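Q: Sequence in, structure out?
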Amino acid sequence: MPATPQGWVSDFAGIMSNETKAQISDLCTSIEKATGAEIAVVTVPSLEGMVVEEYAVKLFKEWGIGKKGKDNGVLFLIAPNERKTRIEVGYGLEPVITDGRAGDIIRETVLPFFRAGDYDQGILQGSMRIAALISGKDFVPSVPIPSSEPQTDAAPWPVKVGMILFFALFITLGFLALGSSLRRKGQSFFRIWGAGFGGIPLVMSIVFALMMGFPVYILPAWALFMLVIGMRYGKKFARSGLFSGGSFSAGGRTYSSSGSSSGGFSGGSSFGGFSGGSSGGGGASGSW
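A: Exactly. Output:
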């Protein structure tokens, strides 16, 4: 881990042009003069076996980024060889650069450039957006941000259908049991069991459908249908012994109705070191 910074910008990985480093240094100087906040932009050749979050916290503490007592520092860390980046925020700036906003900067501004192989613009535009949040100004990128790479469909249709059928099995058993128990007295166990056995997979299936672009309404409609079937034919189920008092077997387990179951910074354009600030542990990370 580098013992001392090279300036506002410390390009230990050697991935930035001199022009970009000068632009970011001027930006950091102007932010420090206007607000007192200190921004450190750092690239490293290796995270030395640490996860990016751990490395960022240790480097932030080692260098003392931000004013002591105000903790108004920000570390923008890039590890190109591990393809990791992190925005680490001092306590004093956490209300301004929230975890969500830091994540937006990485996802929307930094990573598109990194994926396009343009480290200079990714770091520059990311630094500009950090500075805009600190100064309370709107961020306007100085160059167009590359469009995100099209995401491939990680789950083919057979997998999606298989998952839907898997959830449907639990929903069917759970809501049949729930519907059957609602029409009969003394079936509180099956009411609770049915609501949980069918309800939890139902919620999971909705989340799955939203993530995978599958129609959301299919399994909720199926659950309602099974509930009605259970209520309508509950007595027949009871006579057949499917959902009756005593015990019920599913998945190799037996359930009973009893409920049991088996440095200081000097003003001006020159960099004189950071001022002893602390990290609040907030921020966001990304990879490409």
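The mean pLDDT is 82.
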